[in-house]
Amino acid sequence: MLITIFTATYKGANLLTKLFESLMRQTNKDFEWILVNDGSPDNTDEIVEKMQAKANFPLHYFKKENGGKTTAVNLGIQKAIGDLWLSVDHDDFLSEDAVEVINQNYPKIKDNKEICSITFLRHHHNGTPIGTQKNPDNLVSDFCSYRTVHKITGDRAEVVKTDNYREFCPIPTFSDENNCLDGYIWLMLAKKYKTLFIANEKPLYFCEYLQTGRSSVGTYSTPRGNMVENNLYASMYPVPVLQKLRAYNRYWQAFFVAKNYKFGTAFNMLLHKWGIIVLPVGFLVFCYKKLLKRTA
Asked: By the number of CB atoms within 10 A of the CB, which of 16, 194, 195, 244 ranks highest?
């Protein structure tokens, strides 16, 4: 099978239909849809049952206790049988030729062991690209340098070789946190692989950002996960020194938010021990934000 399209959903029963209908309209049906319900309390089961009865493609549905998006990804990647992996949020949808376009571009990287993915632009519903408007086409870079060296902003539609994605799974998770380590996998892949960036003018992946979406998850809901991501980001070679310092600032802020976390553990985790110099700044920012919350 060419591609596994993966979706994690939580309280998304009223959002899934648009994505489902876009998959029904695909001109190339060489894909499966893995849908993981992350313990949603709504009527997702009922909606999915109706979709399964209508689906003209393989739809595999799994339900688990709520643990955050990362735990859903860890389950989904175990079940995937596609050569490629594309994660699509439950409030997004694809163009009807998305799978066909991926299929047309896959031969460019299929046998290249140094390249792990093809990455396309995401577009707003009005057809304008997310983030940077003028993007280099057929650029071979890594996920980190793409941002730090080429100064590209905005989420992208990353179509990754499933075996390469699995190399760095399971993604770390932490109890009592809303696990959403979206950046971890891209940084790990950037350490070892390149990706081919396609600046597609014709929209392939449509998205908008909702107030209730997963992109709002931050330091206070997942502090230990935030520490892992910022520590990893600060260790990346292409990241400028100022951005490394900012990452360690966020690292130490998250440390003070995290409960029952010892300083020795946090210090030993540092991939660059000089990150300790930012601890006072992280503490002051933590105190300032805490004061703001009290007075709000």
From this structure: 195
